[in-house]
Amino acid sequence: MNIDLVQVRDDIRTRKTTARATVDQTLARIARSNSQLNAYHEVFDDQARADADRIDLEIAAGKSVGVLAGVPIAIKDNIVTRIGHTTCSSRILENYRSPFDATVINRLTQAGAIIVGKTNLDEFAMGSSCEKCAWGVVRNPWDINRVPGGSSGGSAVAVAANLCAAALGSDTGGSIRQPAALCGVVGFKPTYGRISRYGLVAFGSSLDQIGPITHSVRDAALLYQCMAGDDPHDSTCAPRAVEDVVTTLEETPRAFRVGLPVQYRKGNSPSVDAAVARAVEFFKAMGATIVDIDLPLTDVGISTYYVIAPAEASSNLARFDGIRYGHRTKSTAAKDLFDLYAQSRAEGFGPEVQRRIMLGTYVLSAGYYDAYYRRALQIRRLIKQEFDTAFAKCDVILGPTSPTAAFSIGGMTDPLAMYMCDVYTVNTNIAGICGISLPAGFDETSQKPLPVGIQLQAQAFAEPMLLKVARAYERVQGGREYPTA
Q1: Is 143 in contact with 234 (CB distance < 8 Å)?
Q2: Residue 118 known to be catalytic
Q3: Which member of 376, 405, 410, 429 lies 3.0 to 4.6 Å from 307 by CB, making a disulfide possible if both were Cys?
Q4: How much is the pTM?
């Protein structure tokens, strides 16, 4: 049985249970399962229990509590917290402690959420499998020999295995939605600038966005509403009011249009195509109009992303030099300051991070900037225009989240093949629009059933419409199985 965030919150408020009991049960499940799954890097047992006791006392005294009071939540370890460490699953930040909380942490704790721990990820959020974590491979709870997806794999596993009620992830090219699909949970990437990035360790600053991973659309909507809104600490945060998506969530949209891109119908596993086909029938039964649309730049999204994102990563990660931030080599063989930088970074950064830094440095270098980086920015604008044209014909776009279900750990060694796992998700970030991954059945061809997901996308700041349509699909689909932890 999955943990329903809203139900847990309501049971604590009405004193059917206590925050302490809820936290104790969560911590017990973590203690039982985490050594196998490796979802968490750090668990805050004592602080979580103390926070739960405080909330129980406030409820018993009749005091007003927040909308998330007593709910245990996990945080991806690239979002800074004053409690514990923030490592980005990298040796270079192994001992780093943040002096401040990210804006999203402040907003969640003010709403009464209890932070139970920090989850593992692909190092610096660079990956699609959670195999590139300095603290070991993260394992899919449906089959521990399979990847959970990435880079927010630890958060997706923690939710899927009931090791928390919900979790935060970050999404630069699909890092919330893809692991959500592979673990059979909901992953929501809001519009760029809708949720503050203040306190998110930067990977690709023009692409990164924080969002929730949950068991249901209802839970995702509640977390989104708690976190969204302008923030003076983040100049890219949109200064506009946040709609009440929770109150309107159960309203089934009328006469809405669902776009089906022709480019999303090739190269997928049969189970993924079948999941999309079932979703089409669901939407038809709801009265939606199905519209064929054309997104011809889908196939160039990966190459565009892997110019822009590494370029920004090269700039952002330059601060980790072993002097101001990060691991510093203990070698005495450094000849000069630049040699010290090189040795510290070689020891601190893993192979995938080094690969992307070198790629980003190359595309920004003299003689190649115009040929690669400037060209990628021009294509980015065309991709945004392509989505604008599509959304003139439809309200949401339907397709797969990932082309396949989870693959075996160690089963994909070609970096280019790994990058193609995000073919349907990267353009959402490039265009700055919103997207959500929903559980949509299973791939039954493997030894154990593996979840597959569908993705819905909507234009920028159309979260109310996107969440309503996603919730309507979820209601029609009915209950789901969950792995036992």
Answers
A1: no
A2: no
A3: 376
A4: 0.97
